[in-house]
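cache lookup: miss for this entity combination. No prior model stored, computing from scratch. Input as submitted by user K.M.:
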Amino acid sequence: MKMDRRSFLSFLIGGAAGTTLSPLPWKLTDDLAIWSQNWPWTPVPAGGEVTFVETTCMLCPGGCGVTVRKVGDRAVKIEGTPGHPVNDGGICILGLSGLQLLYGPTRVPAPLRRAGGRGENHWEKISWDDALALVVEKLAALRENRLSHTLACISGTDGGTVGRLMERFLTAYGSPNFIRTPSMRDAYEMTLHLMQGVQASAGFDVENADFILSFGSGILEGWGSPVRMFRAHSAWKEKGVKVVQIEPRLSNTAAKSDKWLPVNPGTEAVLALGLAHVILKESLHRKEFVDFYASGLDRWKNEVISKWTPEQVEAVTGIDKSTTVALARSFARADHPLALCGRGKGSTPGSIGEFMAVHALNALVGNINRKGGVWAVPGPDYIRWPEVEMDATAAAGMQQPRIDGAGTEKYIFARHLLHRVPEMVTAADPSLVQALFILEANPYYTLSDSALLKKAWDKIPFIVSFSSFMDETAQNADLILPNHMYLERYEDVSYAEGFNKPYIGLAKPVIHPQFSTMHAGDVILRLAKALGDPVQKAFPWEDYEGCLDDTFGDALETLRETGYRVEADFAPGSGYPVFETASGRFEFIPEEIRDAGMQAMVQPQGEEPAFPLILIPFDSQRLANGYIGDPPFVIKTVPDTVLKGDALFVEVHPETAKAIGLSEGRAALLATPKGQARVRVHLFEGIMPGLVGIPTGLGHQAYDGYLAGKGVNANALMGPVEDGASGLNAAWGIRAKLSRV
Amino acid sequence: MSTNDDKAKADALTDTGKQPEQDKPEKGNGASGSILFFFLVGLIASLLVGWVVFPELLYSKKKQPIDFNHALHVDMVDEGCESCHFFREDGSFSGVPELAQCIECHEEAQTDHPEEIKFVTQYVEKYREVPWLVYSRQPNCVFFSHAAHVRLAEMDCVTCHGPIGESTHSRIYEENRITGLSRDIWGRNIAGIKRNSWDRMKMDDCAECHAEAATKTASEGEAPIEGFFNNIIRIAFPGSLSGRKSSVQTQNEACFVCHK
Amino acid sequence: MDDALFPKGVKRCPLPEFLMKLGPVVALLIWGVVAMLMCWIKGLNQTNMNDAYGFAAWIWADLTVIALGGGAFFTGFLRYLIGKEKLKNIINFAVLIGFICYSSALLILAIDIGQPLRGWFIFWHANVHSMLTEVAFCLTCYFGVLTIEYLPLVLENRQIDRVPFFHNLTHHMHEVMPLFAATGAFLSFFHQGSLGGVAGVLFGRPFAFREGLFIWPWTFFLFTWSAAAYGPCFTIMLAKITEKVTGKRLIKDDVYDLLAKIAGWMMATYIVAKIIDTWYWATVTAPARGMTFMQFYSNNPLYGIWILILEIVIGGVIPAAILLTRKGRNTPFALMTAVVLGVIGVCVNRWVMVLQTLAVPVLPFEGWPMYYPSWQEVATTLLPVAYGIILVAFSYRYLPVFPQEAELNPIVSEPAAPPAPAPDTDAEPADAELSPAQA
Amino acid sequence: MKHEQAKKYGMVIDLDKCTGCGACMVACMAENNVPFKEDETNKLDSITWMRVYQLTNGKPFPDTDICYLPRPCMHCEGDHGHSPCVSVCPATATDYSMDTGIVSQIYTRCFGCRYCMAACPYHARYFNWWDPVWPNGMEKYLNPNVSPRMRGVVEKCSFCYHRYQLAKDRAFMEGRRELEEEEYQTACTQACPAGAIVFGDLNNKTHRVHQIVQPDPAHAGRPKNPKAFRLLERLGTNPKVYYLSSREWVRRSGDHYLPHEGPGGGH
């Protein structure tokens, strides 16, 4: 039989028929269908038992309770803890993204020693023993040379055990230079100290206030404990509580408020004094408080009455005099009116005069330590460690003036003045700081006047970062001793910003440390041990957990269970408290700082013709601008009117833009006395003409590709403006020029 | 040539013109015999390939890391399958036990059976999870609620998983080289024919059972004769008569019921 | 060199010259293939499409080539079902163009989907409610029909035709061709319509949504009608271009005249329907949804209302008017102008129905997103053009695409050229087209 | 599943309370394994099942006003479940369930023709233009209850359907079929720090959504609450997401109106 063409054809046909009758084509089709639906590179998350761990968020000073959902040994989601006194189940955009920080590429995987030049980002992994030995060697040498006071620490935390351990370490070692990062907390604490004579934080009973007068506070931008403020805001909407927002730009808070008063920038305090004028003139103040519990009113009243008539206020602030009068009346007539200040998120302290003026408004309506008012919340009391026994070196070091000048004659009330450090370091030779620790802070990014900062930085020979993340400061350090990140460690959170009750939150290790990191508390203890006595003697604990145990005693167990402790029935004095000032009364014009109240306004840096506009930074809940930079999820939500590609948009009123010849989206050069940057222009009807609004929180150089290189760092264009009375940084803007390119 | 041509033409008039039919009648019987022969050769060869060779090639055979004796374990526990394959409080199903569960009994070897020794030395002592190969593993797009089936519908494990509890050895795991899934999903039978409810685990099998259940629900109180006709209609036009038409598009249950 | 493959009685340029002239086209083809592979391998991020423009240049190209390829079904319909025998002289070419258009459409669709390896789900898991399902099925079927219609032409190649089997096959295929023409016309009616339905059913898109007639929106009928009107224009245009390129007359004027006249009537009636449709939409459908007519055109930064004028007046009314006058049809320039304007008109219509539909902001607080194709999209869209030119060139060179070519271009040097097939006398047209050598 | 009342899950978002903080967007991304790229500033190529729009009243300084509007998938019911996107899908990859009122999307079935995106007037559907890539280690936080998507398919908000399934499982364990209102809540609802989002069964008179919206069954669920409105009500998409606003200009921004019409005009 010959295989000819026809036979071959019939063979093929037979084959085709047979194949069709076999499962091959059908099964293959089905398998290919399944194959094409499940690509091997698409991850398949593993399942497992679902558990929940309650802990405390440490990404901002808000002190929120969060619940982490775990599947097996993976953390998969962070949610707000229902029933938590601060946030009751709510959570903010940053808190939600914590797992991207935990698992993300910005983590510092192990102790790193700088391999190249500073900031070049070349690192060498070293062991913890080697890393600690390096620090010890350096510190021992300094101490030997009686230069212990040239060790400084910039810390984002000071009230809890870790902050206090660090401060204690510095004390035992012999340095007074424990410097907390600045915020409106500095100004509020000073205000309470001066006017009420207490060392306390300001707490706001926002839930019970029925009239909110906000002097630029970003109630919806991250001021205070953000979630708590959001919840309060919603409650206000439900109850019909009136909110008046005073600021030159239509922020989210302004947009949501019942009345937005676009005030000339930097003149908020004048408006506060103008309101006081009306209240006093019309005798609308609450006499039962003012008469019995306050002092200095007469003198203050005289000044206010003579200097700040509604007409004068109008001339300065641009707010119509009838508006001022009407506002003063409705404020004073409310049952629980509450005046707030601290611009935006409150990341810059501000002028003490302004804070005192606003606080005086609260006092005029008697709303101090009262329902719906401002409460003086005492600092944490649970840390009762024995006094440090200092040796001669330590004592001598502690006698040295602080590098930032806080507590010295000129800055007698200030506790921390970080903004002064760059200047001081650059001024002296050799540098007054020989070694610098940075804990839970990112000053290389957050401090303004970058040019000066870089100069100062170069003069500090030894910089150690404790950061869990490769932030700007870590990137420009010599050694990184990475801390466990907050979901991997125990730490007490001693404070929730703006919360009106004493509160402790406990951060708990939700999962095992993902990298070769070490708790900063343990690092401090090990450093102390290695330095030997007398430093070692100040730290009688085996490890950090032992310290925590010792500090809290039995309370730790309950704290572990509930995750927080709050003094629910805290009442700052029943009825009206006795103030701890010299007079025992609320001081409208504290003796120590007599003139400050009337020097409320701070002028921005720069001169008019060269810089015709004023640059004001503005905060947004979607842009973290502190120690933590935006994780990928959060940066994803930033609108394209703020960031497009790597270009940052500044907000300008259409008329202002037109005068310069700029249209929507056009590139422009933004120059200030401190620097310049290429930006693009977003026309916004909601910003006062003559101003340029710049979003904060962008322009990072470190972190990962999701954040680095995007936009412009607003801090770099700004400079500190020292408040004459307090020494605090009171900058709210800077003169600027915007030109076409 | 022309006569052949005409004939071909005539033949082809009844057909739109397929080659073989057209060509076949042209040669004598011997030729057609050889054509038939080759046709049969092709047919048989391809049938062999399709039914025998193909399944051999399609699946790779893997051994379970430990030869597990289900029957032995079932005998020793009180609550049957759920002793080890249990529900968690939140309604999720634990599936294949984790090492921690095994350790509750097997911290040390209880017998000198080589498989148990292997288990203890290689996994328990090293605290390493056993990489079990799961016969019923579905692709990631599938959502399956054990709670709905076992707790709500009170189905037996056997209905879908078969009498695996009676096995004394672990079967060879046959992995589909294309899909990466077990052969049990399509079923042992390469033609996809099933005799028992647990022979296959494909979407159609889920659908079949769901349609039945729906019919049962729908036909409660229905005259038997109606049920009979409905069944015929249902077989002829699948999906046309299912009891619940929660999906607007498919007139079946909605896709999200089983997919994620 | 390849003379033996040429159709009988015609002259072709030497092979090297032929290939050289095709060189640039092949380059274009390669460029397109590279872009196509990039889209398949790297994904659709190679395009400038985005979430606002889920459909863009490709879908426009799809709709357009299918409308332009409509010449095939409509000419076939006229010839086989209406009995316009004269059109047999252009039907081969119309079928060829149709084949190119439809194969291109399928190719582009295969590039356009996000998971090309799952593209067959449209058949396997078909949702019968979807216009796109209807499109996919009819398109594929009609492509099959076109292949069957094109196949006899291939088989008529002088060398293939020598094989008796193929010769007979061709013969029989010609005999059943009316059946296929009818099938093709039927399928085309539906898929051209479904393509119109694709946009017309989108009740979330007030720009495209049209009230329905039976289960179909009006665009369903408008699309079929416009394909019948403009498809022949495209066939005429390409035939004229082919004549220009080859420097020969290939089709007699009376054939052009007939097709142009029919196209003219179709176009005139279509454009009247389109105007009525637009008017009804502008005064009834859109206002019922709170939108004014100008809202759809005014916030576009580029072309505004002009696109509507371009589509209806310049691409519809004017060419229809030209084609309806004998003088217009018989003046080469006027005829060419009319068909070119017609082709532009239908291109614009499909553009508008795809891209403007998506671009017109529906949420009141959204803006008009702009779009321009990436080079990959341009290259893949030009890929079918290059492929089409190559296929036309080869078909022209080796296949008897134009039955009247030999008659119109007698070769002087060759004595006793075989007589051209008698055009209108033969009762059985299929036979007449077979090579007379058999007779 | 006999005698189980059909649900119609829906949402009402109080725009007076919404602060535009974006927590809902991120809660959704975290819950649903939504991928992210280095550059997400091209908002037309950025997957956000929940997107917060900024609306402005268009008035000059200082009368300018802005309002934020979170936009999940509207889970349109259309006319008897014929939502704009569902009927157009050629491969039955998306589906309207009469049991829950939820529009599903099956990623493995979808082959990426994007017709549904063309059909959706809310831009609630997103295409995976890129292969999702999680930086090394970050895939550890992925939620096993939601399957990660691949390049070339469309995805959208599912009202966190997996949470419905999990809640059902828990209920089954307790021998229940019906869920309590709080047992099934979407991730955005749960996260919203302002409490602006309320989620529940629109058919159930005891649920807050029903009480707030007061849907009118005679008019395809149009709200009887004068403060409530739906986006593009007039298209007949019959969405299940409602908005509340005390501001007239905001309510009017939700749909198109001819110059002489007031909100709700034309009906």
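stored under new cache key. The two ends of chain A are 88 Å apart (CA to CA).
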